Prior knowledge:
The chain has 328 residues and is of the alpha/beta class. It has helices at 23-35, 51-54, 63-73, 90-98, 117-126, 142-152, 171-184, 200-209, 231-240, 249-264, 272-280, 287-296, 301-311, 318-325; strands spanning 4-7, 40-43, 78-83, 103-109, 129-135, 159-163, 189-192, 214-217.
Amino acid sequence: MRLQLIDCTLRDGSNAIDFQFDEIKTRRILSDLERAGIEWIDMGHGFGLGASRNLQKAAALTDDQYLSIAKETLHKSKYGFFFLKKYGTDEDIKKAYSKGMKFIRIGTNITEYLQIIETVQYAKSLGLWVNVCLMKSYAVNLKEFCIIIENMSKWPIDLITLMDSAGSFIPEMVKEYIINANMNTDIPIGFHAHNNMQLAVINAITAVQCGAEEIDASVGGLGRSSGNAPTEILTLLLKRYGYTNNFDYKILSALNDEVIFPMLSEKNRFSTDEIVCGYSGLHSSFLPIIKKKSLEKNVDYRDVIIKVCKKEMVNITEKIIDETILEF
């Protein structure tokens, strides 16, 4: 058995360090990932192509600089970038493709997937390997999910990745969603785990056991919120489960020891904030506004989060938050 692993250290991992992967660290990480046998590397600003131009928090380097470094450093591994329509443009995709980008990961909230069809078609027309990432996949029930996957089965894409954006999936849910996804499309299915409830590793393994052909990971579990499933641990576990790969965990774990862990030594990745986000299904981007409004009304923000997420998980507005706080 063989499956693909996409390492997200240089992309999702950048969220954990304010997108500040400099040239030295980027070259070291790219080089070590390739030496360790990682074939697919997701890199760049955590919010994708064009995000440095359109967000207050720019990455340490420009998209062009990251592309040039990847082209110079990598000889076998493929490098790709994330893309969100709200930040990037077709021109960004075209330029990245001209500079050697081999694949693109087009993200969308699962409830808004129809908004990216033209972007998918454009990227495919260039000859790119296209991966659609369904963010907040837990935000729809199983019936709605199956309809979405069946509709996407007609799209010109190479991989559909379910993203557990808040780390709220439990293994039983992973099993249901992966099995049903495969029943409703012939497109390979992948899984992106977050570790808010310390289930990222078991969820990733469960996804593979239930038919996922791709999983995301990052060295040291570096990633937004509580992080992702650690690449070095998954590579060893996959061997235990009989999956053929030539990953070198020694290189990966040394990379964690020497580069990744020192950047996180003072960060509590399992704080009360991360845990309640995982339990409720709240994307961490909504956390500041809920905490601010809860404090103003002297209400426990954790209770507000749980109650808000029973109403809405994808498009949480100030109105929803205010109305919920009034219920206490």
